[in-house]
Write the structure tokens for this entry.
Amino acid sequence: MGDKYNKFSKYFVAVDCVIFGYEDGDLKLLLYHRGFEPAKGMWSLMGGFVGEEESSDTAARRILKNITGLDDIYLEQVQAFTDPKRDMEGRVVSLAYFALIRIDRHKSDSVRENGAHWWSLKSLPNLVFDHKEMVEKALEKLQNKAGLELVGSELLPDKFTLLQLRLLYEAIFQRDLDPGNFRKKILSLNVLQRLCEKNTTESRRGAHYFKFIDGATERSFERIVKI
Amino acid sequence: MGDKYNKFSKYFVAVDCVIFGYEDGDLKLLLYHRGFEPAKGMWSLMGGFVGEEESSDTAARRILKNITGLDDIYLEQVQAFTDPKRDMEGRVVSLAYFALIRIDRHKSDSVRENGAHWWSLKSLPNLVFDHKEMVEKALEKLQNKAGLELVGSELLPDKFTLLQLRLLYEAIFQRDLDPGNFRKKILSLNVLQRLCEKNTTESRRGAHYFKFIDGATERSFERIVKI
DNA sequence: CCAAAAGTGTTTATAATACACCCATGG
DNA sequence: CCATGGGTGTATTATAAACACTTTTGG
């Protein structure tokens, strides 16, 4: 490489992952207890520095793999955070990502070893630096995505009831949705297949399980939740 | 500052601006002829490196001010481009921004001095590096914004006809819009004020000029163009 | 029996779309 | 007088939202 840019400054470049999971009717975030300075002992997003041979996407995947053991995680860039004073230990430009994780699949022991913990979105602890702002922007992005296509395959188990799917959407949009209208809307997308099996633990009558039809284009081009 | 991060690598951090303008019924991009290596002589977005005391937002504003002489430019971050090989001259992480410029206001002599030129979005030249991808992502963001709130005050002159506004929207969404329906939709937002003056140069009958009502919340919370 | 979710159907309100039609006027 | 955009009105269709009602079953 040449030296054309040598008069300009270089900075650390990090990624921070806003990791969404869904469990017990609650949208959750995977946070960890920082084991190093600065801000040692405080709660923070999962992050790390971008290596010389990798893009930020690759770095984010590497970090998620380390923590959760998962390879095929849905990942989307949120935005860059670049305030010169955002990290008191040095000039760090951080690229926020959001990830969707199926909690039932990830390696929970690896998560625990890393001092990580799932926190309900409704009661987050104080976060270091500008991580709270990252969470807010990531939630906006998630709402945007979920409003245009059916998420769920990235967050729910293989089979799930429409109640579970609706509760997920209510958690994402943080408001109630009409059960009847939601059911009709979702089924009209033709991306779910009803299974014969029923879930009898969450209602007396029992609700059919559904699964995503393989290969059904999830991007339905119809608005699922009006924004 | 400490030395906690010293084992990690540092990279150049740049911003590249996708500068939209509107003129003669055409959505245009301000590009410039690179005067330095690498890729000297090719067309490129306006860009520059982020300084030690500034955020990337500030850097983008500084660059836009240098080129156009304008201070109050609408600016939004698009996304980070981080491929390790995206710039052959060194590891440069670039943050793409999109800007909306009123061509009638900017300092055209300063633009010319910088070797810059307005190109119609319909016939762009080949761009260096990943700048074409930046333009595509920026247009997506612009469509998203324009679909949810009335842009125009950032791109059109102080007074304009509804024909001009519709042509702007058709340029942004790259499809035709029904004149009657567009008019009703726009006027129902109650953010435009009809002036007594008429424009008689673009139609025989003459069309009323409109202007944006000061302080009218532009974010109308109604969808202007369905996506 | 009753509460609670499952599942279906109906009604109303609102928004998107298509398009007809008259107006004004420069060439 | 006529082509062109200005401007208004209306019919049709699609979608969102509200909500009534019936079914099922464990406690």
In short: Chain A has two domains: 12-147, 149-227. The first helix of chain A runs from residue 56 to 68.
